[in-house]
Write a structure and sequence with these properties.
10 helices; mainly alpha
């Protein structure tokens, strides 16, 4: 296949992904959610927070004890394979397997980031902490508020709080201009990720009208959608 044909096929795939039945008016809807939609969204947020927390904990374990290795790589593969084979009705088992897979991946990712990108593990942990806390914040707000505007506003407030604190830190005399510039780029990527979560939340609410929402599968979709974000993040951070 020629490069031009491959490029056209990739562009069509991207366009097909962003074809959705909901509109921008649905995204800006400030009304209350139905009980079913509300419960489905809370389950997805909680499952996503468990997965992010496990992933960050695994990365932290590799930083402190160098837990990552062949065992964690095989464990992550085995856990994902079991997730595929086990019935969706066994929700608790699948959530546990998801956390094991996330922890194993978090412990293993330090090996690849160090080898391919020469990024220290302490930096990886510091990059994973803000989105993990952000998902926890949006889940906590979903327990207190039923209106989607309140939930999304909490996500926006947390993102801007992190960006503002980083901006204040970059003004410190102990941080050089290159590091400050890089920190601001990371915060922009983080804000884009939280925006991605908000948009995906609307897709969850739309799909909830047509049946039950599988929170584990939705969480895996978020993670499998991250490679595109990571690619754009790398391009943003590398383009000085």
């Amino acid at each position: 296949m020629k490069f031009s044909a491959m490029k056209l096929q990739a562009m069509n795939a991207v366009r097909a992904y962003f074809v959705r039945n909901w509109t921008i008016e649905d995204l800006m809807n400030n009304g209350e959610m139905t009980q079913h939609d509300y419960a489905s969204l809370k389950r997805v947020y909680l499952t996503l927070f468990f997965a992010m927390w496990s992933f960050t904990s695994g990365s932290f374990s590799h930083w402190i004890w160098e837990a990552g290795g062949q065992f964690t790589v095989l464990s992550s593969v085995a856990s994902l394979l079991c997730l595929y084979l086990i019935s969706p009705l066994r929700v608790k088992t699948r959530v546990l397997l998801l956390m094991i897979a996330a922890f194993s991946n978090g412990a293993s990712i330090g090996i690849f980031t160090k080898y391919f990108f020469e990024i220290d593990q302490d930096l990886v942990v510091s990059l994973l902490a803000p989105p993990t806390l952000g998902i926890g914040a949006i889940w906590s707000e979903s327990l207190l508020a039923r209106e989607r505007s309140e939930i999304y506003r909490a996500c926006l407030f947390y993102s801007w709080a992190v960006m503002f604190s980083t901006f204040v830190a970059t003004k410190s005399e102990f941080i050089d201009s290159q590091t400050a510039h890089w920190m601001l780029k990371v915060c922009i990527v983080f804000a884009l990720f939280m925006g991605y979560v908000v948009v995906y939340s609307q897709e969850i609410l739309y799909d909830a009208h047509f049946g039950e929402i599988n929170s584990v599968n939705r969480t895996l979709t978020v993670f499998f959608g991250l490679p595109g974000i990571v690619v754009h993040a790398a391009r943003l951070c590398l383009c000085a």
